[in-house]
């Protein structure tokens, strides 16, 4: 399946736009009936892209549970004037022995295909809004409004291919595919116009 022409694979990385959404956008600490908000990350491959692209999402903002701990997101208290930066928990995250490029594997979920002009919700996970500092104070405090955006590092997707997961992933029981001819060259830099905001109510 990995037979895309060199004229396509030699092109510069395509444009991908990203939208963040937090629902519900308000949260009250200690309210057992108040659901933890979900953070959704939606991507759209520009309609001018000549082919679909497949992203490996493990180390990107499309894996927000990990990305929130790797400086891929930025947070600010926008109820302050001027807004103040919020220090998010930092960790290198779990160490991995490598990825399985195979359909049906546990890693298949980290390969996502984007099609030109089509919006795809790549990730939807609970936002860890109840985190506390080392002094046991809430990171996000009641009576404040916050914004969540992408850092410079978080805007990059380094591992991607021209084509779909059918082109990239090995079939169950099949031989390994040679995907060297469809590997993306250069980082995809994600475009995001506005951060998303949420409020911690009293």
Structural class, by secondary structure, is: mainly beta
Inertia-based shape:
elongated
Q: Strand tally, please?
A: 13
Given as residue ranges, the uncertain stretches (5+ residues, pLDDT < 50) are none
Distance between the termini: 56 Å
Mean pLDDT: 89
List the helices and strands and how they pair.
Blueprint: H1 6-9, E1 16-23, E2 26-27, E3 38-45, E4 53-56, H2 64-67, E5 73-77, E6 84-86, E7 111-114, E8 119-126, E9 144-150, E10 156-157, E11 160-162, H3 165-168, E12 188-191, E13 196-200
Parallel strand pairs: 1-12, 2-13
Antiparallel strand pairs: 1-3, 3-8, 4-7, 4-11, 5-6, 5-9, 9-13, 10-12
Describe the structure.
By secondary structure, the chain is mostly beta strands. The protein has one domain. It has helices at residues 6-9, 64-67, 165-168, and strands at residues 16-23, 26-27, 38-45, 53-56, 73-77, 84-86, 111-114, 119-126, 144-150, 156-157, 160-162, 188-191, 196-200. The radius of gyration is 19 Å and the shape is elongated. The termini are far apart. The model has no long low-confidence stretch (mean pLDDT 89).
Summarize the structure.
Helix content is 6%, strand content 31%. The chain is built from three helices and 13 strands.
List keywords for this structure.
202 residues; mainly beta; five-stranded mixed β-sheet; 13 strands; 31% strand
């Amino acid at each position: 399946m990995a037979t895309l022409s060199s004229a396509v694979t030699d092109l510069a990385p395509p444009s991908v736009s990203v939208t963040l959404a937090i629902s519900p956008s308000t949260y009250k600490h200690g309210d057992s009936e108040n659901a933890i908000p979900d953070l959704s990350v939606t991507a759209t491959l520009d309609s001018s892209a000549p082919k679909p692209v497949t992203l490996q999402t493990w180390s990107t903002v499309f894996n927000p549970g990990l990305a929130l701990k790797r400086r891929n997101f930025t947070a600010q208290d926008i109820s302050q004037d001027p807004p103040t930066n919020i220090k998010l928990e930092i960790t290198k995250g779990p160490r991995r022995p490598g990825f399985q490029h195979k359909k049906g594997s546990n890693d298949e979920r980290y390969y996502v295909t984007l099609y030109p002009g089509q919006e795809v919700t790549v990730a939807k996970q609970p936002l860890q809004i109840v985190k506390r500092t080392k002094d046991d104070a809430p990171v996000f405090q009641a009576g404040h409004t916050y914004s969540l955006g992408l850092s410079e590092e978080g805007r990059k997707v380094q591992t991607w291919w021209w084509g779909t997961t059918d082109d990239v992933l090995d079939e169950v029981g099949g031989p390994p595919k040679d995907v060297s001819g469809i590997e993306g060259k250069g980082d995809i830099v994600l475009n995001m116009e506005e951060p998303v905001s949420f409020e911690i109510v009293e």
